[in-house]
Amino acid sequence: MLTVDFRRLPDLTGTSLLDLGCGAGRHAFEAARRGAQVVALDADRGELDRVLAVAAAMAEAGEVPTGAAIRPAAGDATAMPFADDTFDVVIASEVLEHIPADATAFAEIARVLRPGGVAAVTVPAWLPERVCWLLSDDYHNTPGGHVRIFTRQELHVKLARAGLAPEGQHHAHGLHSPYWWLKCAVGVHDDDHPLASAYHKLLVWDIMRKPAVTRVADKALNPLIGKSLVIYATKPPRAAPPPAAQPDTSATASTSIDCRTPEGTAASETLHATA
Prior knowledge:
Elements: E1 16-20, H1 26-33, E2 37-42, H2 45-60, E3 69-74, E4 87-93, H3 102-112, E5 113-124, H4 126-135, H5 152-161, E6 165-172, H6 176-186, H7 194-209, H8 212-225, E7 228-234, E8 252-260, E9 266-274
Parallel strand pairs: 1-2, 1-4, 2-3, 4-5
Antiparallel strand pairs: 5-7, 6-7, 8-9
Helix pairs in contact: 4-6, 6-7
């Protein structure tokens, strides 16, 4: 289940891509299939072990083209272990809503992204998320849970403050919002509830088969109740330094200054001053 629309990203062949807060690795796997050299970063080492296992299976099955790879890395989104200007593309999907110091995380995304590079940032959309918070405290009030609900304007402002220029956006997963509302209503941890279980099976079927009827429904619902807001932003290229100023030697005067020593003798010094 991809939240980022890879058609909005540049050609990934041979690029360096960071999947920040990779989780189970869904975006990392797709990026590798498209030829990227992927670093999958997460604070959960258990998730990284699973990503590594799937990446190895993909390589064995021939799903990863020559030159592409997935390298898991443990790290913190607010202090990433990478040099400045490391990645051509950064994906941060459904992670920033978990981070209390989100401004620092935005700054880190901009820091590790190369000038001219693209960042794809996704967060839970305001309306569907607000409904979930109203229906259930357990949905967000848990260790590692969501600490904020982003508005679109807030996300734009924080990207801009970090030095990134938002250039496009869309919503995704319109069919998923009712599922989460249902989960919050019946008990967010009650996976065996008949209604929640039946809706989950529908979503799995949709993801696996992609039938036309659900694709049309999802596309129609996305602008209204899409579960995720996706914004694409670029890091502006650095401006070229201005040319060094050249001294103007067009008018040079020679001035003779008559100085007197303490003994009364004359000393003559010629100074060249630029007019």
